[in-house]
Amino acid sequence: MKRMGVSALLALSLVGSAAAHRLDEYLQATLIGVTPAGIDVEIHLTPGVAMLPVLMAVIDQDGDGRISPEEERAYAGRVAREVELRVDGVAAPLWLTESNFPTLEAMREGLGTIRMKLHTARSGHALHFENRHLPQVSVYLVNCLAAPSDGLVVRRQKRDEAQRSIEFEYSFGAGTEAGPRAAWIALGPFWPAAIGIIMLVARMAVLIYRTKHDKRESRYSRVRSL
Amino acid sequence: MVKTTVLGSSKSSLLVAVLCCGLAPAQSSSSVASTIVASANGFLSLLDEGQRSKVLFEFNDAAQRTKWSNLPTTMVPRAGLKMGDLSGPQRKAAMGLLAAALSNRGYEKVLAIVEGDEVLRAAGGGGGAMFGRDLFYISILGKPSVKDPWMVQFGGHHLALNITMAGFDGILTPSLTAAQPAKYTVDGKTVRPLGAENDKAFALINALDEGQRKQAILNYKVADLVLGPGQDGKTIQPEGIKCSAMNGSQQAMLLDLVGEWAGIVNEPAAAARMAEIKADLSETWFAWSGPTTNGMPAYYRIQGPTVVIEYAPQPLGGDPTMHIHTIYRDPTNDYGKKSVGRLVPSR
C-alpha cells in the first residue's frame, strides 16, 4: 500500500463514537411509493447517540430500560398516527404493515434504524404527506420514489424548509393499465351507486327471464292442450 | 435562463473533448481486464487456504454483495480479509489489484480516504479502535475471469467500492466515497480527498445565472444522503435544474464534476461510463441545497437516467464541511446487473 507519512495531524475535536455517526438529531427519512394500486410509505428513524434517552422516554413506557414487543407496537402505532397522508385533499388512513426495531446496543452507538412500512389503498392525483412526530429533536428527509415501470409522472413537488411535509401531483402515463386491484380501489367512493346498478341489472335480468319463461310456459301449455 | 442544445456549442464540445481525453483509454478495455484478472489471481496465489475461504464468495452471494456501509467496520462488520491481517506482500498484492481496477486518480482518491481514516485513528477518534488503514476489507465474488462476471469489494469506514467486472466492462456502481477529516496535512501538504467534488460543484452553481440558480436550488434542507447504503434498487423523482437548460460550458462543468466519481474506475471503463452519462445529459438534473459560497456546507445531487450522485456534508456534532458522505449509483446497472445480463455464459 502506498503510504503517506502523516507528519502533522489536525486538532480534531472528536469525542468517542460521535465522530462517526449522528449525535443529537433524530433522522426521519421517508420514501413515498405511488402506484396505481395505492401508496406505500417507508419511514426510517435513526436516533443520534445523544438522542436515545429522549427516544427511550417515549418508547420505554415501563421504564425498565428495554423495549418490549408491546412497546415496539405502541411506538410504531404512535408514529403511524403522527404522520398524515391526504390524497386529493381527503385524509387517507395509513395502515402499518411492517415494523423492525434494531437492538438497543445498535441505537446506543447511533447506528440503529427503526424501519416502518405503511400503506393505503387510496390512489388519486394529488398527495400531501406530513410528519408531525417529535419535531423538536428531528431532522427530516422526504422523497417520492420514481416508478418508470408504472409510467408515474410527478409534478410540482413542494416541501417545507425542514422537509417535514411534501405535496405533489401525479399521474400514470398512457399505456399504464391499472391492475384489477387498482380498479377495485378506484371504485371506492362510488360503491353505493355501483351496488345499486348491479342490483338493478340483476332485477332486470330476472324480469326478462320470467317474461321469457312465462311465454314459453304458455306456449308449452298451448302445445299440451292440442 | 440560458437554453442551448446539449453540448451544442463548439466551445463546449472542445471542453468535453478535453475532459474525455483525460479519461481516454490509454489501454484497451481487454488488456486492462486481463491485467485486473492477473492481479486478482496474483493476490489469491499469495493466500493460504484459510484466507482464500475468507476472501472468496459466490458471485451470486447477494448478502455479501450488499454488505457495505459508511460506518466503521467495528460497528457494521464486513466479511472478507482485513488489511491488518495480511502480510506485507499480501497487502501489497491486494492494493495492486485495486490499483489495476482503478484509474490513477481514482486510486489516489481511495488512498486519501483511507489515510484520512488513519488520521482520525491517530487523533483518537472513537478511542482509535474503530478507525485506521488496517480496518479496511477486501473480498472477491466469483472467479476472476475475462469471460464470466466477478466482483471486487474494498471498503471500510467511509469507503465502499463495488467493482463488478463483466467481460471487459468495469462497473463501479454502487460505490460510496466519504471523508473525515475532509482536510488534513501530510508532510506539510494539504490533502482533501473529496476537494474536487466540493470545489467543482461550487464553481458550477456559481456559473449558473440567477434564473438557473433559482431552478437548481431547493427550498429545503437535506440532512443526509437519500439513496445511501441500504437503498439499493430505489430511485427518487429528480429535482433542480435540467441540464438541457444549461449552456454548453455549464454542461461541460457538470460532466467534469461527474468525472470525479465516474473517473475512479480504470480509464477504459471510465471513458465508456462518461460517454453513457453524456448521451443522457439532456435528461440529467442538478439540484443544490445550502449556501453557494465555497467553504460553507452544501448538499447537491446529480441525477440522470443512468446516474445518481449525492454529496452530503454531515452535521454530526462538528463542522459539516469536515465530514462528507457521497454516493454514486446507476439505477440501471448497479452491481453490473445490465452488463452481466449481456454476457454470453462461457459454460
The largest contact between protein chains, plus residue counts on each side, is: A-B, 45 and 51 residues
Radius of gyration of chain B: 20 Å
Strand content of chain B: 15-25%
Instruction: Count up the helices of chain A.
Output: 5
Question: In terms of quaternary structure, what is this?
Answer: heterodimer
User: What shape does the CA trace of chain B take?
Assistant: globular
Morphology call of chain A = elongated
Helix fraction of chain A?
Answer: 25-40%
Q: Uncertain segments of chain B of ≥5 residues (pLDDT<50)?
A: 1-22
Query: Which structural class is indicated by helix and strand composition of chain A?
Result: alpha+beta
What share of residues of chain B is helical?
25-40%
In the sheet with the most strands of chain A, the strands line up as 5-6-2-1-8
> What about the largest sheet of chain B?
12 strands, mixed
Distance between the termini of chain A: 111 Å
Gyration radius of chain A, in Å: 29 Å
Number of structural domains of chain A: 2
Overall pLDDT of chain A: 78
Overall structural class of chain B, as computed from helix and strand content, comes to alpha+beta
List low-confidence stretches of chain A.
Answer: 1-18, 175-195, 219-226
SS field, number of helical segments of chain B:
11
